[in-house]
Specification:
about 325 residues, mainly beta, Methylamine Dehydrogenase, Chain H, 4-stranded antiparallel sheet, globular
Length: about 325
């Protein structure tokens, strides 16, 4: 992180003022001709799973601008993938459509497991080494699924659809957020509830640090906050506009840095923000451009990642591009 702080001191102050235009990405790679339905970036930002409406699923090496594998759940048609994730170690990926879950080897591109699902899935978090996946389901469950052998070995209940799920690296914790206004942290081994936070509106997005020490929760129309897991206290409520929150401003994706000190968030309007958690300040902001400026549909942020470069980040836009964000 030393390079990060060096780069931070060089940011022109005018870029952070409200009257200045929001910077756009420094580079873009087209990965789909039109709309991206789902997308996932590897932890280092070098690889991506892209679920395209027109091209089906694909696995990309971003530095080489190369689509390595075509991933579809059927030989007949391109699959409309609803969710995807890449394991923390980068060796595995999982994709979900309306009826099935598939585990893929990112080394060979071959499928290593195909399973029928009992209910639709809103979100997916793949564990290390691709052994398990936490699924946020429309039937009010978050289910830990054995993607090697099949079957659910742990289930966490909500009183409404589960919108978002997250796990830490050692799989000891599971964080779930749902339509029942609740964010719940679970002991993934015993299934016991560790704590819950109740909001005034549905919880749309959750995230955990790699070590499980910090949790992110975004409730639409309400608030967005970071919680210290050990004390269960709110560390920081992100300073987002109350007016915009009341109008429905939401967070589509959140990603902690590996050390848990920084946070990237993305929104449906294409805004990406980098936050310093300990310093409790917004470090930088970018705006993802539309494919065509005249189109009314915004370029929603599908996924984000930190990279090995302290001043560069990656973002998947719903318009079919993967962007490099720099300052």
């Amino acid at each position: 992180m030393k390079k990060f702080f060096t780069a931070l001191t060089l940011i022109p102050p005018l870029l952070l003022t409200a009257c200045s235009p929001v910077p756009e990405p420094s580079d873009a790679l087209e990965v789909a001709a039109r709309t991206v339905q789902s997308g996932a970036l590897s932890r280092d930002g070098n690889w991506a799973v892209i679920g395209s409406v027109y091209h089906g699923g694909g696995y990309w090496h971003l530095p080489g601008a190369e689509r390595l594998f075509n991933w579809n759940h059927s030989d007949a048609l391109g699959t409309l993938m609803l969710a995807a994730d890449i394991s923390p170690d980068g060796g595995w990926a999982a994709t979900v459509d309306e009826q099935s879950l598939v585990l893929w080897s990112t080394e060979t591109g071959s499928s290593r497991g195909f399973w029928r699902l009992a209910a639709g899935v809103n979100d997916l978090a793949l564990g290390r080494h691709g052994n398990v996946a936490l699924l946020g389901m429309v039937d009010g469950r978050a289910a830990f699924y054995n993607v090697r052998g099949g079957g659910v070995y742990q289930s966490f209940e909500h009183q409404g659809e589960v919108n978002s799920v997250a796990v830490n690296d050692d799989l000891s914790l599971a964080l779930t957020g749902g339509e029942d206004f609740a964010a719940r942290l679970w002991d993934s081994q015993t299934g016991e509830l560790i704590f819950e936070k109740i909001y005034r509106e549905p919880v749309q997005r959750v995230a955990l640090t790699a070590d499980g020490s910090r949790a992110f929760v975004a409730a639409q129309y309400d608030r967005v906050e970071i919680i210290d897991v050990a004390s269960q206290k709110v560390l920081w409520q992100l300073p987002l506009s109350k007016e915009k929150m009341l109008r429905g401003l939401s967070v589509t994706v959140a990603r902690f840095s590996q050390d848990g000190q920084y946070l990237l968030t993305g929104r449906p309007d294409g805004r990406v923000q980098l936050w310093d958690i300990d310093g409790q300040e917004e470090v930088y902001t970018w705006q993802l451009p539309k494919r065509k400026a005249w189109q009314p549909t915004a370029n929603a942020v599908m996924d984000l990642s930190f990279t090995e470069h302290g001043d560069q980040y990656k973002a998947i836009g719903s318009n079919g591009f993967v962007y490099t964000l720099s300052y």
